[in-house]
């Protein structure tokens, strides 16, 4: 599954799907049974993955996308170019609102975010499409 645009280089989503699918298998979701994996691609071609980790105190649950981006930051990744979310739901699962805000912190507004599932469906958005007029560090004094 590939995407080509006029402004962005060719994105091969297959390696991200592979990593996100593996992370999906590691998800800790005993309460919702809603497993999610995510993978991010940085400017150097490195791929970072993460899964959702639930908590009995539901508000402390951390989504796969945020875990993935936290891992990338921990590994001193300079710039994330693309992010993919993987589930085994029939309907594709876009990032939640909290994740959209965190994505806007680490990806440019024109960067691509995709959702994939076990049925080989893929949907792609830009960060700006997911969170128009995002509050980003550029707005800080």
Automatic annotation (TrEMBL):
<feature type="binding site">
    <location>
        <begin position="52"/>
        <end position="58"/>
    </location>
    <ligand>
        <name>substrate</name>
    </ligand>
</feature>
<dbReference type="InterPro" id="IPR050202">
    <property type="entry name" value="Cyt/Deoxycyt_deaminase"/>
</dbReference>
<feature type="domain" description="CMP/dCMP-type deaminase">
    <location>
        <begin position="11"/>
        <end position="138"/>
    </location>
</feature>
<feature type="binding site">
    <location>
        <position position="96"/>
    </location>
    <ligand>
        <name>Zn(2+)</name>
    </ligand>
</feature>
<dbReference type="InterPro" id="IPR002125">
    <property type="entry name" value="CMP_dCMP_dom"/>
</dbReference>
<dbReference type="InterPro" id="IPR006262">
    <property type="entry name" value="Cyt_deam_tetra"/>
</dbReference>
<protein>
    <recommendedName>
        <fullName>Cytidine deaminase</fullName>
        <ecNumber>3.5.4.5</ecNumber>
    </recommendedName>
</protein>
<dbReference type="GO" id="GO:0004126">
    <property type="term" value="F:cytidine deaminase activity"/>
</dbReference>
<dbReference type="GO" id="GO:0005829">
    <property type="term" value="C:cytosol"/>
</dbReference>
<comment type="function">
    <text>This enzyme scavenges exogenous and endogenous cytidine and 2'-deoxycytidine for UMP synthesis.</text>
</comment>
<feature type="binding site">
    <location>
        <position position="99"/>
    </location>
    <ligand>
        <name>Zn(2+)</name>
    </ligand>
</feature>
<feature type="binding site">
    <location>
        <position position="63"/>
    </location>
    <ligand>
        <name>Zn(2+)</name>
    </ligand>
</feature>
<keyword id="KW-0862">Zinc</keyword>
<feature type="active site" description="Proton donor">
    <location>
        <position position="65"/>
    </location>
</feature>
<keyword id="KW-0378">Hydrolase</keyword>
<dbReference type="GO" id="GO:0055086">
    <property type="term" value="P:nucleobase-containing small molecule metabolic process"/>
</dbReference>
<dbReference type="GO" id="GO:0008270">
    <property type="term" value="F:zinc ion binding"/>
</dbReference>
<keyword id="KW-0479">Metal-binding</keyword>
<dbReference type="Pfam" id="PF00383">
    <property type="entry name" value="dCMP_cyt_deam_1"/>
</dbReference>
<comment type="similarity">
    <text>Belongs to the cytidine and deoxycytidylate deaminase family.</text>
</comment>
<dbReference type="GO" id="GO:0072527">
    <property type="term" value="P:pyrimidine-containing compound metabolic process"/>
</dbReference>
<dbReference type="InterPro" id="IPR016193">
    <property type="entry name" value="Cytidine_deaminase-like"/>
</dbReference>
């Amino acid at each position: 599954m590939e995407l080509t645009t006029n402004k962005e280089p060719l994105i091969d989503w297959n390696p991200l799907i592979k990593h996100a699918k593996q992370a999906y298998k590691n998800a800790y979701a005993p309460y919702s049974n809603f497993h999610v994996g995510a993978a991010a691609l940085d400017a150097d071609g490195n791929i970072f993955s993460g899964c959702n980790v639930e908590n009995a105190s539901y508000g402390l649950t951390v989504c796969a996308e945020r875990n993935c981006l936290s891992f990338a930051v921990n590994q001193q990744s300079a710039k994330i170019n693309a992010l993919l979310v993987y589930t085994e739901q029939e309907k594709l699962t876009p990032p939640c609102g909290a994740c959209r805000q965190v994505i806007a912190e680490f990806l440019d507004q024109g960067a691509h975010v995709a959702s994939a599932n076990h049925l080989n469906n893929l949907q792609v958005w830009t960060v700006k499409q997911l969170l128009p007029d995002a509050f980003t560090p550029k707005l800080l004094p």
